[in-house]
Amino acid sequence: MATPLKFAGLLLLSTALVAPAALAQEVPAPADATTSDPQAADPAAAAGRSTAEDPEAAPDISVPGSDIIVTGRRSANVQKNIPAVVSVLSSADIARTGDGNIAGALGRVTGLSVVGNGYVYVRGLGDRYSLALLNGSPLPSPEPLKRVVPLDLFPTNIVSSSMVQKSYSANYPGEFGGGVINLTTNAVPAESFLTISGGIGANTETTYQMGYSYYGSKSDWTGFDNGSRDIPPALAAFFASGERISSGNVDTTAIAAEMVRFSKGTVQRIKDIDPNYSATISGGTSFDLGGSTLGLIATAGYSNKWTTRDQRQQNSITPDLSALNSDFQRVTTDNRIVVNGLLGLGLEFGENKIRWTNLYIRDTLKHTRMGLGNTQTQPTSDIMEQDTAWYERQLIDTQVVGEFKLSPAFSLDVRGGFANSQREAPYELSFEYIRTNAAADPYGNLFVNRLNGNTGQTATVSFSDLNEDLWSGGADLTWKPSADMALTAGYAYVDTNRTSSRRDFQFRASSDMPEGVGVLRPDLLLAPGIVNYYDISLIETNEGNPAFRATLKNHAGYGKLNWQILDDLSLDAGVRYETAKLTVSPLQVFSTPGASTASTQLDNDYWLPSGTLTWQMRDDMQVRLNASKTIARPQFRELIYQFYFDPDTNRRYQGNPYLQDSKLFNAEARYEWYFARDQRFSLSGFFKKIDNPIETFITLNGDNFVTSFANAPKADLYGGEVELQKYFDLSSMSDSAFFSTRRLVTIANYTYTKSKLKVKEGDTTAVFGASSTLATDYFRNGSPLTGQSDHLVNFQFGLEDQDKLSQQTLILSYASKRVTSRGLANQDQPDVYEHPGINLDFVARQGVYVAGRQFDAKFEVRNILGNDYEESQSNGTNKVIYNAYNYGTTFNFSLSTTF
């Protein structure tokens, strides 16, 4: 196993900032690390039924207009009978791959890839082109950079099914570029159950290796702060006053003296990082009320995971990449704690169902990073960085869905929901120390921070807060005038309101502060005595636009026809009308209003037609043709003219208030052959034309690279998919009892996608605050869309017992290189590419009996081949490593039992 910090010099030099054991205790280990991630425990088993017991049961799916999703010959095969191009992951599918969250499970679906922290790309289109729904209702995002919720927030144990629809139909929202991902939660259990599971895991790059952290508070292991990160009194009073620091009326020294303490500002080495562990408890029961059934399901889960990354990060500002602007080795240790709970009530009476779902997810990241490197402006000096942060993401969702069969001819779906998401990041502390290595400098062999704001001599602290409320409602009425026709009309309303604030401060010392003071570690350098004695002050570096409000109000209505024209020919067609008002505007936080013009007012309406023609040439074979028009709106954070640093990608972002909606034309042809139960072959081709696609570009702000967004003129995307799912009965291979009930499982899919930006001389784009409006200054003609891989491969190969729980599965995935960022604007630099490569996993699940009770034992090995992460920029001669590190191989073991 490699030491997380291969750069041995950083181990030695970091001593200047890292508290030794003599000064403070080591970071306390989380209590009772006794259990892998059992979050991927089979949800079907958690609902009181094994997948082997009911292999033909249709997965529970709750979507707008749900009465029309299965037409013609009704059967359990939803993927075959739904009048659209879909992929459905049942609880059995999710359990087989063993993924702990829905993002990981969806990464196995044809044409889907997971990029970054849980954002699903459909057919190479970014997460802005994907829509996530829970039981047919929208969800807000707790991420400042996204309006789409990251799907790694959802443990698999709370989801009954995941449906991905890749062809648009009018019953879904019009923001449907790549596809919609609908998660359906468990409702009424088949029988009473109580499932308890626990797990433990280790990673070769992290577990029992050295890493970094900081104390924080005693309750950090729970994912909840105990109040130690509350805004200090002097800063709170300053916020309430409405004063500007630049006015000269604020005592910033008093504020600075309360900012940095040992618990939040002192990085400590952890000699042996603890294993990952988690636990889940799920229970449910149903009550016969005489003619109706009331179901109750509750789930609670906790996981604690450590990740250490030894990263090489570089960038260049020269067109030929011949010189590096910065070159750093950084070690990041993240402790991620996820707490989740679900409480669901379901009432079934006759053909009617009412589902009330309450969901709580809290995802906390304790982030620590140390870095050592140099910059082009200080080529002979060494710069040391220290960053500590605490990110809280929280999602609360409550929704009611009613599916009513009013009569044989009429059915009604109604739904309403409220969701709140929050993200708080108090005390993002960042320090830079410089060692000049100059013989003439009396402190040239020491790391010094003079707090003068120059490169390598800075100290900053940021407080950011995001709150988003989302109200949604809708109704869908379906009338079946005959057995072969259904007419549906529906209405949907979404009201989203987000407030986002970020206050950035820099500590500044006067020139008469002795240089020797600057060698102190951060908590001593900014201790109250030092701050007061040397009159260390604060400046606010983002006084112009510290807070924004963003709103989206969307009304939509649609009409839809589902018609079985002939026994072998059906048509699903409709049109949706949407009107939406999207606004982003600065919030007044100071008594004297600012003069910012960084606001957005979009008021658009669209008619969005769609149609799917299905020819069922045989009972087991059919061809689909689909065409539609859809849209993609800019996300809130892409519009907000405010800096935001993403520690995961090491990128600084800033929005563009001038962004416009993207418009898409979509077409697809698909052949499907369902040659046996749960077995199929499909082949499809697709094409998308995009007007005004939103793409990223990079500019320079001082010495900092800044990623922003702009509308490219046009783009085309096309490709094809092939999928095969086949089982082979092994009972005839041998007389051995081992093979008598086993079958071989093979699931393979491949997606080819090609995209091209279309930019020509004279094309324009709008970028706030920029002097150029030429699209060719930001985009290169023929470049692929951001995040799109030409090739995606998923292959599952395993053994499965048909009578009892016993599964052994090898899972291979491959994604070819994909653009993550454009080269520096106006420098004709090559794009930055990520190289995902090949990943191989192994998952084994086995039913075992202990003391007369059956347990579900699961063993996982992830990244068996030791695939590494690399994001780089190359022109064939020179290469710049934007971000590179080793994932390591992960081992998980979990055990669960159902009472």
UniProtKB/TrEMBL annotation:
Taxonomic lineage: Bacteria, Pseudomonadati, Pseudomonadota, Alphaproteobacteria, Sphingomonadales
One GO CC term on file: cell outer membrane
Low complexity bias locations: 29-47
Cited PANTHER family: PLUG DOMAIN-CONTAINING PROTEIN (PTHR40980), TONB-DEPENDENT RECEPTOR (PTHR40980:SF5)
Keyword flag Ubl conjugation: no
Keyword Signal belongs to the record: yes
Main localisation: membrane
Protein keywords: Cell outer membrane, Membrane, Receptor, Signal, TonB box
Localization per Swiss-Prot or TrEMBL: Cell outer membrane
Name of the protein this chain belongs to: TonB-dependent receptor
Domain TonB-dependent receptor plug: 79-180
Region called Disordered, residue ranges: 29-65
Cleaved signal peptide residues: 1-24
Family: Belongs to the TonB-dependent receptor family.
TonB-dependent receptor-like beta-barrel domain segment(s): 441-844
